[in-house]
Amino acid sequence: MSVFPTMLARAQAYLAERRSLGFALDRSGSLTLSFARFADAMGHEGPLHEDTVLRWAKDEAMFADPFTWAKRVDVLRPFARWLAEIEPATSFPEGKPFGRSFRRLAPHIFTTAEVDMLLKAAVAMSARFGAGADTMPTLLGLLAATGLRISEALKLQCGDWDEVTGNLTIHRAKFMRSRVVPVHPSTASALRDYLSRRARRCPTSSDSPFFVDEHEGRSLRYGPVRQAWIDLRSRTAIAPRGGHPFIRIHDLRHTFICRRLMLWQTLGADINNEMPALSAYVGHVHPADTYWYLQAVPELMSIAGDRFEQFVDKREGTYHG
Q1: Spatial separation of the C-alpha atoms in residues 246 and 74, rounded to whole Å
Q2: Of 1, 39, 250, 280, which is the most buried if we count CB atoms within 10 A?
Q3: Residues 134, 198: Cα–Cα separation, whole Å
Q4: Across all residues in the chain, what is the average pLDDT?
Q5: Which residues have C-beta within 8 Å of that of residue 5, sequence separation ≥ 6?
Q6: CATH architecture for segment(s) 112-236
């Protein structure tokens, strides 16, 4: 008989143990708890069973497609392995019941006009979101100007911003890595203006959150930001050009990387020399993650093709591929 009365108790014990070892488990932890609550609500008893996993993966998914279901199954694999150690009767779907769980769809690359449209719409936002007109323009502007992940921006503390050097220090980023991100003077000015407004709302110290909820005065969370983004998406009606059905906050990061690569290609820079610096700036662990953009984005492929044609012309047709 299990020492845990419910699946939720199992999930909480698992997450507590993993986090004590240094794992953040933000999104995967939320999904694991979601599964546990689903299983308990179903009246699930005894060890984990694969049928419950498959049903949760499909019935509770936001998007009804096999890729989403496959990703949800994969999230639970470490939890299932942990359970199998204490409950040998644990069963989990073998192989890939919904197909592969990893893919890279072409991102939406915002034009300058579209970014301006988003920022103007953010300035006019109503106060019904915790991320409103006082916060969203600065937050989105920072993402567009630096390529930060939204999770990195929301974890910033006031002490991470050095007004003298104009640098942001990103702590505990993906894979628990840290890095220093220099910002443009115009971005630094926007951050100073935001901190001035923020100081009128709540106290500021080195360990207090940089971005705060406009309603509650605490650290701004992703939920209100997502609600505000959906509102902006609706009001700007920007048509997605990538492989996703709608524009995403993460596309601002993709746009930053692609615009930098496009600028370097236009200027004739040596991409191979510049790529390691860009990878370090945006926090990619593997340079291959940055090189991926060269084949994934039509705008970059077009510039690369033009440069190749110029190369052939200069060689007067002597190139042999």
Answers
A1: 24
A2: 39
A3: 9
A4: 87
A5: none
A6: Orthogonal Bundle (1.10)
